[in-house]
Specification:
It comes from Cathartes aura. It is built from 4 helices and no strands. It is mainly α.
Length: 133
Amino acid sequence: IFERWLRRHRPMLEVYPAANAPIGHNRENYMVPFIPLYRNGEFFKPSRELGYDYEYLQEPALDSFQEFLIPYLEQARQIWAWLVGAAVTGGIVTAVLTWLILACWKKRRGTSSEIQPLLTESEDYNNISYQSN
């Protein structure tokens, strides 16, 4: 399992903690009770660098891009209904929230006669004409 993880992620040695790990688990601590003594960081290498290889972990050559995509397409085929349902539900929720926000904004922004001031400023009062056309 560790070898698969190393091959998939190819981490650098600096990823292995140099400090603040549980006692005996830092990069420079010795592996106990193994003899001869080796540091933990020395085993943070793929097996190929240590001189051996696992046959069952050898990476098969991909013949085409299609073979690379097949596992992902199979997963997408299994969950497509859930994805469509989530998209539709999200669209409906977004539309309802947008409608509510716009309705509240229009209601608050509306200028009705009840909101208009009853008295005008003295400068405006002189310019008002009460004659009708």
